[in-house]
Structures are given as structure tokens and as C-alpha cells.
Amino acid sequence: MNDTVITPLNYNDFEDSIAVGYSYDGTSPVQKPDDIYNLYPAGAAKSTAQDMARYMIALVNDGKYNNSTILEPSTIDEMFTPTFTPYPSVSSLSHGFWNGNYKGIEYTGHGGDTFYFHTMLTIIDELDLGLFISCNEEASYLLSTTFYKEFVDEFYSDIMVVNDQPQIDIDLSRFTGAYTSGRSPITTNAKIVNPLSCILIMENDDGTLLFREDTLVPIDDFIFRNQNDSSLVIFAQDIDGRILNMYLENAPAIYYIKDKPLQNSIMYLVVLAFAVIVFLLSIIIWLIKKVISLIKKRTYYT
Fold first, then answer.
1. What is the domain count for the chain?
2. pLDDT category of residue 193 using cuts at 50, 70 and 90
3. pTM for the structure as a whole
4. Which of 4-13, 40-49, 233-242 has the highest mean pLDDT?
5. 31 and 149 belong to one structural domain
6. What is the SS3 assignment for 38?
7. The sheet that has 98-102: what strands, in order across it?
8. Residue 98 and residue 19 share a domain
9. What range does the domain containing 188 cover?
10. Same domain for 189 and 220?
């Protein structure tokens, strides 16, 4: 590794100058402790923007950096070869990379997040372009995930192809409801917290769907176009015609499971009951402390 990668890429030790994570408390940034994690099957590593730039140069240059061969061209090809596509019309996964399409421009990359650091590496092969951004503030994840889109909009708008398929009229009620991430607990008791993180799909008055803050325009029976970035949102049904899953075109490692109405209601009731119990216990504890305080005062004065 030292001879073939670290030395040719001129990687240097940076432990003495490592960035610090922050969280905004409403008035000012608060410094936070190091929060790097290595949890199976994921992992984490520290690097610098300069080192990542050298790595990206090798990726878009058939594995070469300066006069050194870091990776063989065949290795680069294999790294970027799709290995898994979760559903038709959804982008694929390669070896450690997510593939995507933004307004007709194909890209590949991978992001990473801890509590206070948010990072994204993006390679646009047809432009021989690599972008890397890393942010060290808790709420900066939106910047890391949208930076490459803003960059392409600003500098490559002349080659973009915007999906402008016309809106069609379909029954939207079958798509509305609560959806749980496929990354959430499904079979263990930890699923009780899923309602706290589920997303809601709601119907707008103009024949579109509301997904978080995005508007989804129906362009086919099960395909919607995101008005924000022209990406596709695809729904899948079971043999009885009930909507099962939702897929995002440019997030092949993520999918959503449509909650059954009864299941979702029961889980919400359980969470609500737990919240009510905690609230009542808090009131009882507060009252007990008050009574004890009054008793102590009376004892003192008598």
C-alpha cells in the first residue's frame, strides 16, 4: 500500500492539523469531540481534500497520477462496473460507488456522514471531473449532498438534458401514506421507533405528490419526476396492486417500504402512549420534589 498508493500520491501525516466538528446551538458554533466510527459492515477513514484530489485525478486518468500507476485501467473499469440495480429505472451500485444521473449527466461517487462531518466525492467521467466536499458542522449535510448539482448547474448547463415529460392524470391516493426506510429496523423490537423517522407522501391539489419538500409529477403509472432536480421516483406494487416500495433514481442503496395503515396506526399509538407515560412521570416526579421541598422548609421553620 505504501509503495503503490501512499508514496506515489504524496499522502502526508495530518493528525496534528485535523479538523474539528461543530454543532450550532442557536447562537454560536459549539466544538464537538472526534466522532469517527468503524461499524461493520461500514467503515470510516480520515483524509484531506488535497489527498482526495490526487485520488480523484488517478480515478479519471486511468489509474495514473503524475508518472506513477496507482491502479491498472482494468481495475478502474471494474471499480466502476455496475454490480447491483435494485429496480428498473433506478441507478446502480458499483464497487464502493453509487451511480446516478443529474439532468442527463452521468456521475458516480460516494458520500459519508458522522454526526458532525458530512462528505461527498463525485466523479463525472465524461467531463474528466472530480468534486470533493467535506463539511464539519452537524447541519451541513444538505450542502455536501447538493454541491455537485449546484456546480453542474453553474458551469455545465449547456450540456444538461432536463426531463420534461408531461404530467399524466392517475389515482394518487394509492401512493399516499407513511413510508419507512429500508435501513430501519424491521424485524426487531427496535422498530417501535420507526414512526419517529418515517416520511409522509401526501397528495397536492394539482395532481402531484408532496415528498418532504419536493413535488413529484406523475409521468407514468408508477414513475414520478422530481420537479426539483428532474430525478425519478419509482413505486413498486405487489400482485394485488398494492404499493409496496418506493425507490429514488439516484440513491440505489436506499429504498422505502410503504407502511400498512393498521400497522402504522398501532406503532404511532405505542409511541404516543410511551410519550404520555414519560410526561406523566415527569409531572409526578416534579410534584414529589415540590412536596419534599415544602416539608423541609416547614421542618426548618418549626
1. 2
2. low
3. 0.73
4. 233-242
5. yes
6. coil
7. 98-102, 105-113, 118-124, 129-135
8. yes
9. 177-258
10. yes
